[in-house]
């Protein structure tokens, strides 16, 4: 039992560390126009258009989902830019990238369920599914 609790603590620490790493990268580009210009040049080369790296709001869980999704969408351009800036040590390792992908997938699932729940609640009571109850 104790080993399982220690494993859960380790996973939680990994999530926290990885999220902090993504935030640090986002802040790096948001605070420097020069660095962001280099990133945007790589985005145009790689994706054909500019993309914005998002920074989450710590009190809004769905902003973290957006931050991680944008990071994953831009990861090739981010890696090239960090290499150009000699800051490649900031880029997540393969294990950390896998954690980001897993966390993003989980948050996307929660966001989809949340959106579906909001849509069902917006329906008139007589058209809601029979087994759906609202405790609002």
Structure description:
By secondary structure, this protein is mostly helical. It has one domain (2-116). The protein is 72% helix and 0% strand. It has 4 helices and no strands. It has helices at 2-31, 33-47, 61-84, 94-122. α1 packs across α2. The radius of gyration is 19 Å and the shape is globular. It starts with a helix and ends in a 14-residue tail after the last helix. 16% of the residues are buried. The model has no long low-confidence stretch (mean pLDDT 84).
Helices and strands in order, then pairings?
Layout (H helix, E strand, L loop, with lengths): L1 H30 L1 H15 L13 H24 L9 H29 L14
Helix pairs in contact: 1-2, 1-4, 2-3, 3-4
Q: How many structural domains does the protein architecture include?
A: 1
**Level of helix content?**
over 70%
What distance lies between the first and last C-alpha atoms, to the nearest angstrom?
37 Å
Proportion in β-strands? under 5%
Low-confidence stretches: none
* Helix/strand order: HHHH
The overall pLDDT average reads 84
Overall number of strands = 0
Total number of helices: 4
Structure keywords:
136 residues, mainly alpha, globular
Give a concise summary:
The protein is mainly α and 136 residues long. The protein is built from four helices and no strands.
